[in-house]
């Protein structure tokens, strides 16, 4: 009887539900070990290898708009046959480094989530592709904190669905914010790609994120937005290896107190590692975000924006020069052209080359400190700011998956470059073009003796079949030139079908 009482309400709920589903096939082939930059980047970490045959399918129940309370859920699975890439790893039988081939798993769960909404508040649990960024357009560089470049991290996230009015401001001040905690699931990937010969490996890492934004009235021609993002890695276990022998281990699991400490980082943290105790628990990074918008009835909308990165107090205080992403976007009100975006990225300052802090030297009386050499996306305890080898932030910084020597951190974060994107549409066709150039000087701690350059380009055409509703065909042609990535070309073709069905009125 108790079981029936529980099943009947669920059956009644599902009897009033709309299901949206999709299925797609992706085929990519190129001349390099890895897919060209623009095929691999900002694609949820799916198309990384030089040759890939990938099937992707999912189904979801979307929350109903306009209701005080609604719910949703989704699932997406991937089946993949891809080419291999060779990585250096210590051969314990031979006692030396050898090359071992690695490729993505044959199948995995890409998304699995549930969501509840009450008025303007949402609560999401599980793995869901990041759709919350204000700086993750299809023509831009990708959000420098959390973009669509990597697989989603399992997490619980709560916040405002969109901007809501601050009381007593007559709608002139609006606010949006959210908080998330989660845990990385890529420990197995890291263990398979680490070389076990030098540096370190960190697994079992936890995830934290929060953001808060303030905006003026969105129904006016001029709109200003300002806010910040804060992300962190905490917990985890670190192992140092030298030529096949583990020489040092550190770290532990997490306690309830760690979740509070990571939310409001305080000096002299309570973590288990020496770095946590001398500085702050975990690895912190974030950005100050600014966006100015203007909407004109006949000319369209214009945006100027900036994302200014920080890794510690020096960056928060904007002591890192012109480091940041500076961009402009135009969306015409009419015509075949739908968008133009130009972005410039400069990460060459990083608060200067000197890091001299009291916690670095036991028993040494240091009257002052210089917390420079920020080393964006890297940390002394944690592997790079990535998930399954792909950067969680902008892909403009070369991701660790490309390090075939088994090094798990970012090798090129002192970067300067630009990107331009153009899109258009007409009838059943839409198109997009991307072009970028960048130059890298390595990292603040490991500078390159010879600078590396990359020139990347991509053209995309999408056709929505007018006689087969829900069917979309896409083609991308991309090329990489220069020394930062392997030079070559690649082609990606995909076919996707989207549909829906109702089990009753919801």
The gross shape turns out to be globular
- Termini separation comes to 26 Å
CA-atom Rg in angstroms = 24 Å
Structural class: mainly beta
Give the strand tally: 26
Poorly predicted ranges: 1-12
The overall average pLDDT, rounded, is: 92
Helix content: under 10%
> What profile does the largest beta sheet have?
18 strands, antiparallel, barrel
- Strand residues, percent: over 45%
Please report the number of helical segments: 6
Number of domains as seen in the coordinates = 1
How would you sum up this structure, described in words?
This protein has helices at residues 2-14, 37-40, 187-193, 256-263, 274-278, 313-316; strands at residues 18-34, 49-61, 69-82, 85-91, 96-102, 107-118, 121-127, 155-160, 164-165, 174-183, 200-215, 222-242, 245-252, 283-296, 300-310, 324-331, 337-346, 355-356, 370-371, 386-387, 390-391, 415-426, 429-442, 447-464, 471-482, 488-502. By secondary structure, the chain is mainly β. It has one domain (2-20, 115-502). It has an 18-stranded antiparallel β-barrel. A hairpin with a 5-residue loop joins strand 25 (471-482) and strand 26. The longest helix has 13 residues, at 2-14. The chain is globular. The two termini are 26 Å apart. Mean pLDDT is 92; it is low at 1-12.
Task: Show the helix and strand layout.
Layout: H1 2-14, E1 18-34, H2 37-40, E2 49-61, E3 69-82, E4 85-91, E5 96-102, E6 107-118, E7 121-127, E8 155-160, E9 164-165, E10 174-183, H3 187-193, E11 200-215, E12 222-242, E13 245-252, H4 256-263, H5 274-278, E14 283-296, E15 300-310, H6 313-316, E16 324-331, E17 337-346, E18 355-356, E19 370-371, E20 386-387, E21 390-391, E22 415-426, E23 429-442, E24 447-464, E25 471-482, E26 488-502
Antiparallel strand pairs: 1-2, 1-26, 2-3, 3-6, 4-5, 6-7, 7-8, 8-10, 9-10, 10-11, 11-12, 12-13, 12-14, 14-15, 15-16, 16-17, 17-22, 18-19, 20-21, 22-23, 23-24, 24-25, 25-26
């Amino acid at each position: 009887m108790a079981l029936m009482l529980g099943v009947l309400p669920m059956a009644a709920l599902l009897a009033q539900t709309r299901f949206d589903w999709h299925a797609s096939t992706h085929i990519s082939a190129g001349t390099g070990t890895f897919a060209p930059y623009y095929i691999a980047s900002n694609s949820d970490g799916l198309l990384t290898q030089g040759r890939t045959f990938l099937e992707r399918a999912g189904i979801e129940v979307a929350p109903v708009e306009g209701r005080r309370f609604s719910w949703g859920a989704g699932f997406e699975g991937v089946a993949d046959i891809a080419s291999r890439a060779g990585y250096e790893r210590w051969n314990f039988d031979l006692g030396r480094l050898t090359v071992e081939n690695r490729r993505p798993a044959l199948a995995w769960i890409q998304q699995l989530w549930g969501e509840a909404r009450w008025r303007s508040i949402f609560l999401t649990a599980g793995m869901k592709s990041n759709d919350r960024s204000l700086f993750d357009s299809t023509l831009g560089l990708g959000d420098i904190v959390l973009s669509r470049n990597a697989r989603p991290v399992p997490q619980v996230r709560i916040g405002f669905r969109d901007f809501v009015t601050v009381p007593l401001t007559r709608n002139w001040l609006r606010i949006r914010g959210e908080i998330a905690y989660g845990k990385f699931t890529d420990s197995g990937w890291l263990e398979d790609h680490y070389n076990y010969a030098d540096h370190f490996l960190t697994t079992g890492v936890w995830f934290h994120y929060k953001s808060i934004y303030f905006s003026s009235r969105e129904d006016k021609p001029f709109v200003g937005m300002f806010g910040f993002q804060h992300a962190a890695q905490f917990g985890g276990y670190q192992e140092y290896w030298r030529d096949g022998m583990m020489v040092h281990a550190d770290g532990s699991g997490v306690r309830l107190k760690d979740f509070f400490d990571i939310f409001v980082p305080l000096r002299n943290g309570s973590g288990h590692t020496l770095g946590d105790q001398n500085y702050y628990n975990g690895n912190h990074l974030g950005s100050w975000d600014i966006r100015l918008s203007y909407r004109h009835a006949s000319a369209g909308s214009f945006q100027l924006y900036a994302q200014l990165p920080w890794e510690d107090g020096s960056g928060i205080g904007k002591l890192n020069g012109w480091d940041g992403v500076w961009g402009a976007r135009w969306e015409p009100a009419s015509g075949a052209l739908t968008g133009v975006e130009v972005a410039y990225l400069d990460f060459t300052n990083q608060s200067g080359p000197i890091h001299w802090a009291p916690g670095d030297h036991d028993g040494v009386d240091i009257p002052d400190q210089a917390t420079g050499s920020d080393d964006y996306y890297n940390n002394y305890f944690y592997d790079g700011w990535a998930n399954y080898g792909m950067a969680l932030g902008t892909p403009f910084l070369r991701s660790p998956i490309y390090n075939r020597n088994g090094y798990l951190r970012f090798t090129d974060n002192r970067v300067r470059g630009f990107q331009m994107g153009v899109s258009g549409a007409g009838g059943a066709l839409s198109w997009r073009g991307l072009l970028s150039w960048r130059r890298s000087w390595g990292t603040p701690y490991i500078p390159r003796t010879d600078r590396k350059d990359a020139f990347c380009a991509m053209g995309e055409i999408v056709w929505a079949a007018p006689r087969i509703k829900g069917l979309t065909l896409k083609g991308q042609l991309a090329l990489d030139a220069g020394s930062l990535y392997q030079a070559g070309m690649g082609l990606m073709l995909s076919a996707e079908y989207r549909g829906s069905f109702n089990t009753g009125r919801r």
